[in-house]
Amino acid sequence: MTAADRVRAAVAAVTDPELRRPIGDLDMVREIEVDGDRARVGIVLTIVGCPAAARIESDVREAAASVPGIAAVDVSVGVMTPAERKALTEKLRDGRPARQMPFGPESLTRVILVSSGKGGVGKSTVTANLAVALADQGLSVGLVDADVHGFSIPGLLGIPAGTQPTRIDDLMLPPVAHGVKTISIGMFLRDGEAVVAWRGPMLHRTVSQFLTDVFFGDLDILLIDMPPGTGDIAISIGQLLPHAEVLVVTTPQAAASDVAIRSGLVARQTGQRVIGVVENMAAYTLPDGTVVDLFGSGGGAAVAAALSEGGDDVALLASIPLSPALREGGDVGIPIVTTESTDAAATTIRALARSLAGQGRGLAGRSLPMSIG
User: How far apart are CA 72 and CA 66, in angstroms?
Assistant: First the structure.
């Protein structure tokens, strides 16, 4: 193997941070020349102004410099031609036609809808932290913020305002936060725009585009943060993903749990399966040992029991105690599960993630890490 071959092999192994694949596999490596101890490396990026350009160039330079005998590296950066971009998008789709939804029943990706009967129960906070906890288990995780009117996932994950997906022709590459590939309508609003006043057809089109035009790659789990209630989006996703599983979030009081039952029943009408209930804002323990049921008790168990009457065995999978730390983490965009916190809410969500990971459908054809079970 020549020196140029060794440099090419090292550079080809560099991973594109957005596509999460080696740039050699993406046909982004061009000419490689070695003159003495100096290497000249040519690469092309997908688009002009690629957000990952600086990182890719730095990683390529470092990879080439790591080859024994190379003391200096010159990197030239170009941009793919339209034909090259078309070839790339076809490769990424793996032969699937454009605008075809990749999460059908034959997919190895497990799709879990996180729903609630009413707003204010902490559903999005639970979803964001659960997604990060699943990614920490070594799984490839995607997250769709389908709560179009009340989107909050970007803020909960600390995705800076103004962050948008990178577009490669008709494909969108979702931003990645804490290891989770994420898409939300909040990434498409113009400066100063904070309200989405859409009705059925626009909502259906938006959700459909999130599922077809966003390139998530091979996912083990796709979480969808549903809007509260049983409106247009719930119906649309029921039509698009009738095989999806549903996780129902409620708080302990009857005012929330009674309504949460309805969201599970509606999901069943489309063929979706309710896999469990998560009770949020449950009792917490003060430093002196006093247990405080600020929002009552028993709601999660009541929802699980009511949904089990339909024939499925629906369990209360987790009871997450009320936690100031969980709320504070959401306010600053640092999910509590990303820290070493021993907070009871963080511990409970991590345990829920381990439980769900152990129920995988096949997990995109990959074996599970040993820590999962």
Answer: 10
Indicate the average pLDDT of the chain. Answer: 88
User: What residues pair up with 291 in beta bridges, in sequence order?
Assistant: 285
* Contact status, residue 131 vs residue 180, Cβ threshold 8 Å: yes
pLDDT tens, position by position, 160-181: 988 889 888 888 999 999 999 9
- What are the distances in angstroms from CA 351 to CA 103, 111, 275, 337? 26, 19, 16, 11
> Is residue 233 within 8 Å of residue 244, measured between CB atoms?
no
pLDDT under 50 in the chain at which residues?
A: 192, 195, 197, 362-373
Cα distance between residue 71 and residue 296, in whole Å: 67
Question: Using the 8-state DSSP alphabet, how is residue 197 labeled?
Answer: -
Dihedral angle of Cα 333, 335, 340, 346, to the nearest 10 degrees: 150
Quote the CA–CA distance of 39 and 35 in Å, as a whole number: 6
